[in-house]
Amino acid sequence: MATTAPAAPKAAVSAAKPVQAAKPAVATKPAPATSAAKKPKQDRPPENDHGIWRISRRNFFSVAGWAAFFVFIATSTIASLRMMFPRILFEPPSAFKAGLPDDYIIGEVSEKYKDDYRVWIVREAEGFYALSAICTHLGCTPRWLAAESKFKCPCHGSGFRSSGINFEGPAPRPLERLKISLAEDGQILIDRNIKFLYEKGDWIKPDAFLRYA
Predict the structure, then answer these.
(1) Using CA atoms, how far apart are residues 140 and 171, in angstroms rounded to an integer?
(2) Other C-beta atoms lying within 10 Å of the C-beta of residue 149
(3) Are the beta carbons of 161 and 180 closer than 8 angstroms?
């Protein structure tokens, strides 16, 4: 039995494909660790920071807002209290008792009630009269100068005699006299609301002079 000869091997490919060079490995950046979260901003600097204490903008506006609120509340409360309790100025009574007639010396000017009531009480041989201790120029309080027997205003130099008549300085008219009488208990009673003006002839009226012997 005839045998077949083995097939001849295929001819080698004359032009083989060139082998591509391997690409160099690219170094990849490591992924950030998920456990390391960003640190929150601190209101206070680290211990080694010697600067002044810093606050965040949010905290600053929060503090400023609360401060403005409390200032508004305090102002409103004070205004309400002023309306509930208005300021009251103490004024001495217009009429007051000035003691017994025998407590006064003839020829002397009493300054006992000048500070509290702005009144001088003058005793003469025939009785009493009360002078307003208000200068008729600009309302200052004159001083009684016993050695010179006159009232002298320290503001602008007006001078008045013990009777109240003006004789020097810018005062345009005499001092005013006040109503003077005897109360039921025998004390001298002065009423500052009732005044008598020399230039109007009021000094001759009965209530401008208290006769007492």
Answers:
(1) 11
(2) 11
(3) no
**Which tokens go with 75?**
């102002």
Token pair for residue 209? 């002079």
**Across-strand partners of 85?**
none
The pTM assigned to this predicted structure is 0.59
For the chain (213 residues), the mean pLDDT of every run of 10, in chain order, is 49 48 55 52 54 61 77 78 63 88 96 96 97 97 96 97 97 98 97 97 97 90
- The tokens describing 54, both together, are 């810093």
How far is the C-alpha of 122 from the C-alpha of 131, rounded, in Å?
8
